[in-house]
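Hi team,

As requested, here is the filled-out complex form for the 2-acetamido-2-deoxy-beta-D-glucopyranose run. I kept the field names the same as last time so the parser does not choke. Let me know if anything looks off before we queue the next batch.

— J.
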Amino acid sequence: MASEVTYAEVKFKNASPAAVVEVPPETKKHKQRRQKYPLWLPWLISLLLLLLCIALVTVFFVAPFSRRGDEPTALQQKFMKWQCVSAVPQGKGWMCCPDGSKHFQKSCYYVSSDRMSWVESQQNCTGMGSHLVVINSREEQDFLSKDLQQLRGENYYIGLRAQNVGEWQWVDRTPFNMTAAFWREYEPSNMVDQKCVVIHRPSGLHDNWNDVKCERHFRICEATIVTV
Ligand SMILES: *[C@@H]1O[C@H](CO)[C@@H](O)[C@H](O)[C@H]1NC(C)=O
Ligand SMILES: *[C@@H]1O[C@H](CO)[C@@H](O)[C@H](O)[C@H]1NC(C)=O
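And here is what came back:
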């Protein structure tokens, strides 16, 4: 009985170093098993990447062009011939204006060669998918003034009018901003019978607005540029 106990002790002493030695391979095995991923995992990752690629292609290439299939805007419906410029810096394909109109920033401008009252002028612009021009900045004012210098007309309607004397209103309801108004010297005269506003071309390149009677004058229509 006593010898049996001794034997057991010896075996235990011998075994424990062996167990210590055996520990590293066991942990190694364990590590190896953890690194081993399921066989389907690469497939799943590939599938997700593929779906991501399809999504990106759709967003960046297909979606912008599929807008062609949308309802054309009023402007698009009215004109057959267009002039387009590449819009690469803006990240879109082409920016287009109806043939015969000028392009500046995000608008197309049409300057008439016939004269109408202010109301008829606005109706004519609306009928072409645009409106009488709304001037929002010094840059826009300068572009238009410069462009008009090639022409011979005197007065060109813009989309500004007073319902009551001195209460200036833009056709698109943009709030009238005194500091972005470009009245010619001594204007507006604010007469009861002068409630429509023109660019007076002979006044030159900068401050050339004048309030006039709403009689027959030339007109400038503005429409948002069409991007495709
Ligand atoms: C606008 O005026 C132009 C030039 O007179 C004319 O050709 C066109 O038919 C008019 N459009 C509308 C909708 O009144
Ligand atoms: C009015 O116009 C000026 C000059 O363009 C601009 O700095 C200012 O922000 C405008 N104010 C409003 C209320 O739009």
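Two things worth flagging: Residues 110-220 form a domain with the Mannose-Binding Protein A; Chain A fold (CATH 3.10.100.10). The two ends are 99 Å apart (CA to CA).

Thanks,
J.
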